[in-house]
Design a protein that fits this description.
By secondary structure, this protein is of the alpha/beta class. The protein has one domain: Formyl transferase, N-terminal domain (Rossmann fold). The longest helix is centred in the C-terminal third of the chain and has 29 residues. The N terminus is likely disordered. The structure holds 5-O-phosphono-beta-D-ribofuranosylamine (GRF). 5-O-phosphono-beta-D-ribofuranosylamine binds next to helix 1, strand 5 and helix 6.
Amino acid sequence: MPQDKAVSSSAFRVGVLISGRGSNMVALADAVRDGKIPNAEVAVVITDQPNATGLAKANERGIETLVIQRAGRTRQEHDREIVNALHAKKIDLVCLAGYMRVLSSEFLNAFPRRILNIHPSLLPSFPGLNPQAQALEQGARVSGCTVHFVDETLDGGPIVAQREVPIRDDDTIESLSARILIEEHKLYADAVNMVLRDLHED
Ligand code: GRF
C-alpha cells in the first residue's frame, strides 16, 4: 500500500539514507505502515549508490527514492545536495540505515539532534567498520545494536536505545550479524518512535 494513504498532513516526515540492501529502511517503512510508528511517514529514501538493492524495496512500498551520487564532488558539495533534497521534502528526522559516508558538519548543523544512526554493536564498544568481527576477535560474550544521534564523532553521539544479543561459541561473522540484524530492525523502529514522541512534546 502506498504509505501516503494512511498519513495525516501533520505527520512527521522521515528521510532515510541508505547505501546498500536497506533492510533497516524496510523495517522502518513497514513499522510506519503497520502503525507501530504512529503519525509518521517515510517521505523519501536517498542513496549515494545507484545500485543499492534497497532502492527497489523502497519503490515497491511506494516511497519516493533519489540517487545522489558523490562522483566528482567534494563531501561538502555532495552533502549540500542531499540537505537541499531533505529540506525540499520537508524532512523532520533523518535516519541513516547502512549509509556508508561520514556526514559533513554542514549536514549535521542542518539537522541538529535530528539525525539517527544504527550500529551493530553495543556502543561505545566496537565503533567503526566491521563491529561484529571486532566483537568476535575480542572474545566478547555479548554484543548487540545501538541507535544513536549522529554528531561529529565516529559512532559516538548520544545513545537513544540499545539491545543486547548473546554471542555463541560457534558464531561466525555471518551468524552473529544475522542475529544482531533481527534486533536492529525492532530497535530502530522503537527508537524512532521514542524520538518522534519527544519531538511531538517539544
Ligand atoms: C546494519 O547492520 C547497520 O547497523 C549498519 O549497516 C548495516 C546496514 O544494513 N550500519 P541494511 O542496509 O539496513 O540492511
